[in-house]
Amino acid sequence: MVGQAGQAGQVGQVGIIGGGLMGSGITEVCARAGLDTVVVEVDDTASAAAERRVRDSLGRAAKRGKLTEEQVAETLGRVTFTTDLGALADRDLVVEAASEDEEVKLELFRTVGALLEKADALLTSNTSSIPIVKLGAVSGRPDRVMGVHFFNPAPVMQLVELIPSLTTSTETLQRMQGFVADQLGKQPIEATDRAGFVVNSLLVPYLLSAIRMYEAGYASAADIDKGMVLGCGHPMGPLALSDLIGLDTVRAIGISMYQEFKEPLYSPPPLLDRMVDAGLLGKKSGQGFYRHDG
Ligand code: 3HC
Q1: Active-site entry in 128, 139, 165, 201
Q2: Residues 6+ apart with CB under 8 A from 192
Q3: Is 69 annotated in the active site?
Q4: Which pLDDT score is estimated for 91?
Q5: Which residue ranges does UniProt annotate as crossing the membrane (predicted)?
Q6: The whole model's pTM is what?
Q7: Distances (CA, A) of 247 to 163, 205, 233, 240, 283
Q8: Is 85 left (phi over 0), alpha (psi -120 to 50) or beta?
Q9: Atom 33 of ligand 1, residue of closest alpha carbon
Q10: Does domain 13-190 have CATH number 3.40.50.12780?
């Protein structure tokens, strides 16, 4: 456990909106850091799936000897799964990790911004590309809104991008820097409020180029990936990584970046569009460029 709340400005109670791939990972990170965590999902089915994701991931950590069964139970004991946004009212910090849809996020920021009870409560988004300033503008608390972008798998990846908008206060940025570094034990970097921030601006054109290469028949998926793993020392190749991130997410980020910069390299290739239309979303759906069983 990295650090619990206590000192002034520290976060004690966290709310996570969305328990999908990223939301459940962020939930695990917060709960393992000792924080009281509420996860809000859209319905009971999604809520049960979120709980299962967190439980399974903690179970795997226990199997690898990283956690004892007692620690798994304690960690799960810190998390409440609900479908009621009202359960976020008393939180010090809310991290929105809903689907990458601007309308959905704007509605959530409007609603949650109005129901937070603490004057200094922070409202953040794990968006990878939607303008933070727009989320702040509808929240009624633009100075306490910013981006906090985790990487998949969140329990493993050390980086967190922090994205203050034009309206975020210095105090908010400083509190989030302390939260990420001291309470979660992760490494923050700061990025400006532009679609893609630092990492996706570099990563997404690379992933899309690999998909174009595969689409054009340059090489097999396995050989493209092997090329980057063995030739460049990457932990996984670009097509396997796209499957891990989710092809719908890669596409959505590419579209947001293309809309902002009109740079052709950010535009999703037709194969990616067709795969998403077909429900071939990668690891989360069981099939993408590769088959994922279990
Ligand atoms: N949840 C929790 N822990 C996980 C995990 C998961 N989903 N997947 C792997 N791990 C842990 C394992 O338990 C293991 O922990 P240990 O070393 O403490 O025992 C460790 O990670 C290594 O796992 P494995 O041995 O099973 O597998 P690998 O060594 O092949 O590592 C990987 C898997 C960590 C996913 C590695 O391949 C990797 O780093 N890949 C690149 C991931 C990446 O680039 N992520 C960023 C995506 S971009 C993004 O998220 C931004 C978004 O906006 C698109």
Answers
A1: 128
A2: 163
A3: no
A4: 98
A5: none
A6: 0.94
A7: 24, 14, 23, 10, 9
A8: alpha
A9: 235
A10: no
Contact between 120 and 174 under an 8 Å Cβ cutoff? The reply is: no
Pair 184, 175: CB distance under 8 Å: no
Q: Which CATH class is domain 199-277?
A: mainly alpha
What letter does residue 82 receive in the DSSP assignment? E
292 is catalytic: no
Given ligand 1 and candidates 95, 100, 156, which is best to mutate, with the most ligand atoms within 8 Å of its CB? Answer: 156
Structure tokens at 51: 């709980």
What gap in Å lies between CA 159 and CA 170, rounded to an integer?
A: 21
Strands laid side by side in the 36-40 sheet: 79-82, 36-40, 13-17, 93-96, 122-125, 145-150, 159-164, 187-190
In the chain, DSSP assigns E strands to 13-17, 36-40, 79-82, 93-96, 122-125, 145-150, 159-164, 187-190
Q: Is 234 an active-site residue?
A: no
Q: For 84-118, how does the pLDDT look when each residue is reduced to its tens digit (9 = 90+)?
A: 999 999 999 999 999 888 999 999 999 999 999 99
Question: Which ipTM score applies to this complex?
Answer: 0.93
The full set of domain ranges for the chain reads: 13-190, 199-277
Amino acid at 11: V
CA–centroid distance, 286 to ligand 1, in Å, is 17
Q: What spacing in Å lies between the alpha carbon of 249 and ligand 1's midpoint? A: 17
